[in-house]
Design brief:
Two copies of one chain form a homodimer. Chain A is α+β, with helices and mostly antiparallel strands. Chain A folds into three domains: about 5-80, Winged helix-like DNA-binding domain superfamily/Winged helix DNA-binding domain (Arc Repressor Mutant, subunit A); about 85-130 and about 230-350, Beta-Lactamase (2-Layer Sandwich), CATH 3.30.450.40; about 135-230, Enolase-like, domain 1 (2-Layer Sandwich). Helix content of chain A is about 45%, strand content about 15%. The first copy, chain A, is built from twelve helices and ten strands. Chain A has a five-stranded antiparallel beta sheet with strand order 7-3-10-9-8, with helices on both faces. Chain A has a three-stranded antiparallel beta sheet with strand order 4-5-6, covered by helices on one side. In chain A, a hairpin with a 2-residue loop joins β9 (about 295-305) and β10 (about 310-320). In chain A, α1 crosses α4, α6 (about 105-120) packs antiparallel against α12 (about 325-345) and α7 crosses α8 (about 195-205). The first copy, chain A, is elongated. The N and C termini of chain A lie far apart (about 55 Å). The first copy, chain A, binds a DNA duplex (30 and 30 nucleotides) through α2 and α3.
Amino acid sequence: MELNERKRKILNTIINEYISTAEPIGSRHIAKHADLGLSSATIRNEMADLEEMGYLEQPHTSAGRIPSDKGYRFYVNELMGGYEATQQDIDLLASAMTVKINQFDKVIKQVSMLLSRLTNYTAFLITPEMKHGAIKTIELIPIDNSSVLIVLVTNEGIMRNKRVVLPQGVDSEYIPKISAMLKEKLSGFSLDEIGVKEINEIKNALGENGELLFPVIEFISEIIDDIQKETEVYLSGVSNIFNFPEYRDIDRAKEFIEFLDDKNSVTKAISNSQEDDDRVINIKIGKENDMDIMQNSSLVTANYHLGGRSVGKIGIIGPTRMNYSKVVANINQISKYLEKLLEEMYFDNNGE
Amino acid sequence: MELNERKRKILNTIINEYISTAEPIGSRHIAKHADLGLSSATIRNEMADLEEMGYLEQPHTSAGRIPSDKGYRFYVNELMGGYEATQQDIDLLASAMTVKINQFDKVIKQVSMLLSRLTNYTAFLITPEMKHGAIKTIELIPIDNSSVLIVLVTNEGIMRNKRVVLPQGVDSEYIPKISAMLKEKLSGFSLDEIGVKEINEIKNALGENGELLFPVIEFISEIIDDIQKETEVYLSGVSNIFNFPEYRDIDRAKEFIEFLDDKNSVTKAISNSQEDDDRVINIKIGKENDMDIMQNSSLVTANYHLGGRSVGKIGIIGPTRMNYSKVVANINQISKYLEKLLEEMYFDNNGE
DNA sequence: TATTAGCACTCAAGAGTAACGAGTGCTAAC
DNA sequence: GTTAGCACTCGTTACTCTTGAGTGCTAATA
């Protein structure tokens, strides 16, 4: 069966209406609102076709139709129009733009907060992974006799730090020495290149009596491994989901909150989205998500960039009945805004 | 009216039963289970008295009684017995004890996670405020030409760091100089002591051409101010609240999640608990909380200590119908466990 | 041949009703 | 002071009935 122009129009109307009302849409409603000059009976026939083709579903016989995941997918790919920003959106963004932020953590919070307020969904932001960059700085700062702060900076401007307790028996007077050594030996290496060979080289360079420090070197290389893998997830507007009838059911809501509670599963769900084209917004609708718990939710993510390179992800989570065009537009705006803030942070005074 | 032994026993039984069943407790139930050798009619009279005295409430005429906030308060102060750890509790703690943690952030996560798993409520942990300690280290680490990492360590072992963008026009080659200067001039000062005087001293010490750096000094002193005030809140087990019938109502649940969503309000609610005796567990029941949104919830907090000094807070949030004795016992265990982990972190290899 | 009017049918949601039962307060007897 | 007894209250549950939105199918129409 062919998906002709008329069917597309009807499908489009149904999805648009359903997105804004959350009520199954009946044929009479379409006949009245879609301005097709057709009777409800004709539309009924078309709707039956669309259902047969898999774009629509019927919750029960005497209800109207709702879009299936396939329906949403087609809508997102082919039908959905551009989103016209409301005055409220514009005001919100404009007032955000006026704020000058000079603290990195505040940038993150501001941006995820803004995205959740714009979209009314739950927004997230994932900090960059470190693995790609080359080490620019590695530094150990003594905190007390047993613990140090390890600071790692890559040439991409990504910084991570971690407070750790050193293995027993390390005299704190060696810390500066170790720090300098690490810096010298590891600078320029990509994080995923650091292997046994490089570590051994450091060990050798420690010279006589250096063996005492071997455990520290081992230890630090493990921590670097850890740091490399870690990313942080910031959530904002978690309670927004309660605004949607989809989550008025307490068990659905519980499931969702449980999912968000576990940052690991969130990271996993988000990183599953393929990176084919990292400039494009990635949309996963319902069952397109691998995780069980996401089968009734959609995920819209974008990679944000810095110096031409994708460094982290930003996006929103919500019900499959989502205002995709608005969300896509908002994420575009916000990721640009984020990139602008980051540019300022990283390159503003630089000749780079 | 006197709160005699019999009334106390009845009240105690009602509260214990209500805590475990969440159902209003009737006189017949007490007659059967409390082993008082009294008929339900007598108990009925006593319950009417207890209600008159304000310890009990009746949801409606034909229901049993439930404890009022005053009832819980009396229970917590006078009636509640010690909690006997279950095998499950013991196993959970024991397995946690075997894990050796050497990363500070993991300690925090582990502890709050453990507390929420033990209690089945939502647990939180607030990191120490910095204001009391004296500055031991202050260091600026260049990240790129425009941003630096500011690291602050107090003599109490509390560390905070923040990545910031420096004001325009600061050449990065001055960073080490500024860093050394700050360290020299500010070491030993308590954070809340740093005022205009100290800042001016640094400015003067910059010598000729130092004026160019004045904005940076000003800027950094503002950031220090910020750092001083900030604490972080870690939540764990947010979805636990869905296990309680109190929050089966979607609007109550929404309210609760909204509250937790806003870290500021959480911090505020928690820091409101007075610090009269910082060794004692602080319990705020229902209306004893200042915040509107907490009127139907209870907050149990403890200060955790390091080197004899209270440094942060740990605790749980849940419905007023809470298993107080279990929660108190668990928080005690966990704050000891946390202190042990922190001791290891801070003082293990030290002569301190 | 495509469209439409008409109609019987389905089914969720809401309103109304009745029965149930847990629990109470009060009274009178012990 | 305690208790048995009883009328009363009121939330909960189950059931029935009605309503109405929406459907699919058929036959008439353009």
